[in-house]
Design goal:
Elements lengths: L4 H13 L2 H8 L3 H15 L4 E4 L2 E4 L1 H26 L7 E6 L1 H18 L4 E6 L2 H9 L5 E5 L8 E9 L1 E5 L13 H4 L5 E3 L4 H12 L8 E3 L2 H9 L5 E4 H9 L4 E2 L9 E8 L6 H11 L2
Parallel strand pairs: 3-4, 3-5, 8-9
Antiparallel strand pairs: 1-2, 5-12, 6-12, 7-10, 7-11
Helix pairs in contact: 1-2, 1-3, 1-4, 2-3
Length: 295
Amino acid sequence: MDINFEYYKIFYYAAKYRNMTKAAAALGSNQPNVTRIMKLLETQLGCRLFIREARGISLTEEGERLFSHVEIAYQHLLNAQKEISRQDSLGGGTVEIGATETAIHLFLLDALRDFKKEYPGVRIKIHNHATPETMRQLISGKLDFAVVTTPFEMPKTVSCEKVLDFEDILVGGMEYRHLCGKSLSLEDFIQYSWIGLGRGSATYELYRNFLIENKIDREPDMEVASSDLMLPLIEGNLGIGIVPKRQVLPLLEEKRLVRIPVSFRIPGRSIRIAADKGRGRGLAADTFYRYLKNR
């Protein structure tokens, strides 16, 4: 199918603004011309892409599917154009990465600080999601690479390198300090209110499966979207929770939380860099990727 690629550029702006007039203005064209070309594209693709409405346009199911691909391709082209124009000194460029909250706190923040000192002109866009969603975005081509927390399923098309091991511990607010005198068994643990990350996160799946393997059918009493929400709830004595040790050390030292010893082995975890094997990276993205791997 021989379709003029300029049509896809025009489609990108029409779909982005959901308005033919605004798309024409962004392209330096006019509304009748944009409308005419979009009708030609619909004819050549053999499907309807837009639904015309009183206040603009919306996308059909086929239009949404096409836009999901065109948007990624267009952004890659723009990023490549910016990087090529500045590649002599890596004075610019854009990197799009996905990262879990744990990966950001335990690994990425320090690395970003050092990288930006060395390459201040590089723009970095961080998409913060749980591991499963981050991996979906990586596979769909929306990210240059991802920094994620185990466990996760790794497709054959993805390469993965470990950059950091970390330890999870059980903690509670000061009203739970009476639990510090002895090691808590799993049977004891499930007697207390448990605060944990919600469904869709790698952490939820890890501990849900861990309990099932130990013949315990239990879910968190309180599910939250992020560890930043977990900690105030735990500190407020609403329950106990399993969290990365490095993340809570300041709260333990300030005696705002207590570490609760356990007699069972809490699963070990790590942070890994994942990248699509079949897709190249721009200069800025590749430089940052190698920088993180070599820390």
